[in-house]
């Protein structure tokens, strides 16, 4: 069995740890990792709702890409620029915009496409090899978060996308950056 096939099998096993009758939230951003976790969740055969929390400032085509993939688009109570007018510009230390627009509970259980290889900070924050964590949004609200691709590399994601014929957001096929996908290969 190839290394990617083994990672795919483990990811599906992690997702099948969810035993609830209610759907699990697939936290969908419109990015390639979200396309991967949506595909894996479908493969796992568990009940889910793919949900995109619209920030009102995402790249063009993101909402269309979400809808093309059957993802529910949730509009925020307040638009990004209204938040900035009220609170000022966000900074690395004052991330209130993410807290208001993206980091809130919808369902009790969620799937996130977080990968350690994305950054040094993520590698440190997710150093433990726990595929399921408890995420607190407030003193009263918590979500059980499943992390099926936590140990996947950029190459693993690219190879999975290619192997399963996943059509990513159109922005991934433009330009030449490190996260650009090409039709003949990937990342």
Low-confidence stretches: none
**Reading side by side through the largest sheet, how are the strands ordered?**
3-2-1-4-6-5
Q: What is the count of β-strands?
A: 6
Instruction: Summarize model confidence as the mean pLDDT.
Output: 87
Strand percentage, roughly? 5-15%
Query: Pairing-aware structural class of the strands and helices?
Result: alpha/beta
Integer-rounded radius of gyration: 17 Å
Q: How far apart are the first and last residues' alpha carbons, in Å?
A: 23 Å
- Would you identify the CATH H-level superfamily? HUPs
- The best one-word shape is globular
Name the helix and strand elements from N-terminus to C-terminus, one letter apiece: HEHEHEHHEHEEH
Q: Please describe the biggest sheet, giving its number of strands, its sense, and whether it closes into a barrel.
A: 6 strands, mixed
Helix content: 25-40%
Q: What is the helix tally?
A: 7
Total individual domains: 1
CATH class: Alpha Beta
CATH architecture label name = 3-Layer(aba) Sandwich
CATH fold category name = Rossmann fold
